[in-house]
Amino acid sequence: EVSTDDPETAFCTLANREELNSEEDSIHHCLYQFTRNETLTETNKLLCDVCTQRHCGPKNNIKSENKYVYTNAKKQMLVSLAPPILTLHLKRFQQAGFNLQKVNRHIKFPEVIDLAPFCTAKCKNVAEGNTKVLYSLYGVVEHSGTMRSGHYTAYVKMRAMNNHLSDLVLRGQSQALETEPVKGQWFHISDTHVQPVSVSKVLSSQAYLLFYERLL
Q1: Which of the 8 DSSP states describes residue 58?
Q2: pLDDT at position 4, please?
Q3: Where is the USP domain positioned along the sequence (predicted)?
Q4: Which residues of the chain have pLDDT under 50?
Q5: Which burial class, exposed, middle or buried, applies to 111 when counting CB atoms under 10 A from its CB (0-12, 13-18, 19+)?
Q6: Which pLDDT score, from 0 to 100, does residue 179 have?
Q7: Residue 104 gets which letter from DSSP?
Q8: Contacts for 114-118 with beta carbons within 8 Å, 24 or more apart?
Q9: What pLDDT sits at residue 56?
Q10: Where are the beta strands (DSSP E) in the chain?
Q11: What is the pLDDT of residue 133?
């Protein structure tokens, strides 16, 4: 579905994305690439209902596909509703000839991430004037092995219950919380083995799934 928006704000974000210092092997760079502005031309042109009606009359009177009018357009995917829980899934495979190959390189990710550079300027559940949408890391899933076999383990932060986050999940009420990482102890879980680990150990893992909870 293509929604009509104010052309002046259609491609605007809550925070300036061009000021991001996004290293290539980082989650910021991944998000920047995923939400970049794209130009649709040639075979990717957009079907324009307004242009079609202007040239051919009402759409339901058009009997031939050749009469539809397609036009060049710009497209950008941005977050329009900041979720209480942010889940980021990293694509850890690539095409190698006729086979799929696992991507093993480390992708840097922070303990606190600001989603504002990737949110639309009219993000529905962000207070007017806010230029930050902060999230705190609380879980990581890591995969070791190959595309054919391997083992999943997890890093989880044990922390106190967040009543403000519960209100946000259950009732959609957004309140300003802390801007620092949620305090707690990290644990590494592998099948039945659980052991405490440092946050530096967590941040050095080869993340496959990242779980963040809303702070601000």
Answers
A1: S
A2: 54
A3: 1-215
A4: 1-2
A5: middle
A6: 67
A7: -
A8: 114/15, 115/79, 115/82, 115/86, 116/13, 116/14, 116/15, 117/13, 117/14, 117/15, 117/16, 117/17, 117/20, 117/31, 117/32, 118/13, 118/17, 118/31, 118/32, 118/35, 118/78, 118/79
A9: 73
A10: 38-40, 46-47, 70-71, 73-75, 85-89, 93-96, 99-102, 112-114, 134-145, 150-159, 184-190, 193-197, 207-214
A11: 93
Domain span at 114 = 79-214
Please tell me the distance from the alpha carbon of residue 70 to that of residue 79, in angstroms, as a whole number.
Answer: 27
Contact 206, 80 (CB under 8 A): no
pLDDT tens, residue by residue, 184-203: 999 999 999 999 999 999 99
Whether 145 maps to a domain, the answer reads yes
- Other C-beta atoms within 10 Å of 180: how many? 11
For 184, the token pair is: 């707690």
Give the total number of structural domains in the chain: 1
**What is the number of other CB atoms lying within 10 angstroms of the CB of residue 168?**
21
What pLDDT is recorded for position 1?
44
Structural domain includes residue 195: yes
Query: How many residues would you count in the chain?
Result: 216
**Amino acid at the residue 115:** L
- CATH number (domain holding residue 141): 3.90.70.10
> Would 115 be classed as within a structural domain?
yes
Position 83, amino acid: P
Q: How far apart are CA 163 and CA 174, in angstroms?
A: 12
- 130-164 pLDDT tens trace: 889 999 999 999 998 887 788 999 999 998 777 67
